[in-house]
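Page 47, continued from p. 46.
Same chain as before, 459 aa.
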Amino acid sequence: MSGQTITKSLVDGLEKQASEYTVWDAKLPGFGVRVRPTGAKSFIIVYRAGTGRTAPVRRYTVAAVGKLAPEAARTQAKILLGNIANGADPAAEKRANRPKRDRLTFDELAQLYLDQYAKVRKSSWKNDEGYLKKPRAKWKRRIAAQITDDDVAELLEEIGATAPVGANRTQSVLHTLFSWAKEPGRKHVPVNPVADMRRRYQEAPRERVLNDEEIRTLWWGLNDPDLPAGRPVALALRFILATMVRPGQSAGLLVPELVSFTGEDPQYHIPKNRVKRRREVIVPLNELAVAAVREAVVREDQGAVFCSWTPTATAADASGNETGVKETPRLLPITRDALSAALNGRPAKGKRPARRGIREHLGMAHFTPHDLRRTAATIARRGGAKREDVKALLDHLEGDVTATYDKYDMLPEKRLVASILEAELRNIIGTKPVSRALLPIAGDNVLKIVDVERRIAGL
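Result:
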């Protein structure tokens, strides 16, 4: 396809087809946008490496669509084509700088995958990083191109012995990694050893929804002073139940992402890097969610809303020798994994003692942080919220072409769902009299625990 000026609207409208195709730019010969059967789009240039008709034709990827705007990509292409006219060959230079297949370890390949693919294309790249920890530990110095399907099967068996779902997720990430690694123009590995491998473990559909009694037990149980988890983790779990956001979006909430928080329409603006398909999502906050945030933010400069304190430690110099000076405790954001770890607890291992989880402490059946999101959606529907409005608050995406053009944010409808959810939760949890709780406050270079009296009435 040729004769069209490549613009953002043109690029956004290009749809995947059964085979790869390229749309060439009318303004700059040799510059185009390539669309793969997977739907992936990239700006490319085509040129002859040398002079005369016998010079080989090369293709070179300027950038993935989304990483550069069309105008910026055209400018970069113009610079590259100018260099080519003076004898440069960017495709050859790229191949020369590429790690040699016979020397590239799996650990190096995994890092390349994370840096060049997962972090660029996936808002959930942290999950990929987590699932690659065990493969990286097992195959750290192995040559990536020499890893076989038997190696993969052995690893998945080891993981599946204790975590069958984790084995399936690891298999999926490895499949994506090796597929990416063997693509033309990259070819870090000759084959994908996971390509013909079926899933080894059956997974039951995720259907866990907490009943009213469990919700009540959890809500008030999170106030237990003997709870085997920090207060920020408890509040982050409540925040999921009060908003329907994903666990990572609760743990990752930053203070600057709270918009109109002290006004009549408090909102959580989730940035593109923590949302599927990379676009900002607005979540209206009801009073239960606002209360969790207010309690969690104990300092103006803490950055993240749900933070944990680092323990007091003795500072060390560049040589690692203790200076005798006590370091000031610091606030660090909690992680998505911290929420699961708090619910699960951990078994004893070596000299490390076992730690009870929240579920065991409260005598509750198994559930995950994500199950709180499903529970919130269920009770909102039970309270009369429309299914399509609940779907909007859950940020469940439409998959048809119309979704590309319909950018209405459904904020009024989402506000109504948040209000219905709050009313249903209050009916379930009831009220509780005045209680006392502990809050950490930093001051005078030590961690002080201040007894703060507050009224707990569903907040």
